[in-house]
Design a protein that fits this description.
Mean pLDDT: 93
Number of helices: 5
């Protein structure tokens, strides 16, 4: 994929991406040409290129395999390729569709996403403007249907509790709106993993809420930060 755009930004602590999985597919037919869009969550350029390679093998008889990807919490890696279409009519419109996709009113923060549009030519020339619209619409319509999640860098805090009390406390924390990141099991305790915004006020508030829910028997043990998927409500 040739480089068409690189636009570094400041360090982000949250962004939106595709839900984890094998990816998402959507197809449009425009003037008898088939445009098959494949979206996949990718963490790095190697993953993006691996997706493109697998689709070239799967759709080996297609005329074009155009691509674009945006990577990193700050969207610092941006690439696109026209793959034989007239310059600027495929990859760049696809990249712009990724960059401009609003994930909330006034917010465009989609990243760690690769889009590949496979085109089977239908015999009717679309012209430069038609190609731009077709490739942009292919990615935009796929994104409108694809499952998305928020990805946040959160402080993981351990909450050691007796095994018998762990289930109830975890349910109470979830009901209170906290993000749980699994659990670790020791000989005498279950250590619930509570994911919190990495801010003193949030940690203090969570400690107070935890004390109230556990009648003072449980406490937070702050640990490292991790990137965590959070469902979009």
């Amino acid at each position: 994929m040739p480089d068409d755009a690189v636009s570094p930004r400041g360090g982000a602590t949250a962004y939106t991406t595709l839900a984890a999985g094998d990816g998402f597919r959507h197809e449009l037919e425009i003037k008898r040409s088939r445009f098959i869009t494949v979206l996949r969550r990718t963490a790095d350029e190697e993953g993006a290129r691996a997706l493109l390679g697998s689709l070239r093998r799967e759709f080996h008889d297609a005329r074009h395999h155009c691509s674009a990807f945006v990577l990193g919490p700050d969207r610092s890696v941006q690439r696109s390729s026209d793959d034989g279409e007239p310059s600027g009519t495929a990859g760049l419109p696809m990249l712009e569709a990724l960059l401009k996709r609003e994930t909330a009113p006034g917010v465009a923060d989609l990243s760690d996403v690769t889009a590949v549009v496979v085109r089977y030519f239908g015999g009717i020339l679309l012209g430069a403007g038609g190609l731009v619209r077709a490739y942009s619409e292919s990615v935009s319509s796929a994104l409108a249907l694809a499952p998305l999640v928020h990805r946040q860098r959160l402080r993981i805090c351990g909450v050691p509790v007796p095994h018998a009390a762990a289930g109830r406390l975890e349910n109470d924390l979830r009901a209170a709106g906290y993000v749980m990141a699994g659990a670790r099991y020791d000989a005498q305790t279950t250590v619930l993993r509570l994911a919190l915004p990495d801010e003193p006020a949030s940690l203090s508030q969570a400690a107070d809420r935890l004390a109230a829910l556990s009648a003072g028997s449980a406490a937070l043990v702050p640990g490292e930060t991790e990137w965590i998927d959070v469902a979009i409500s």
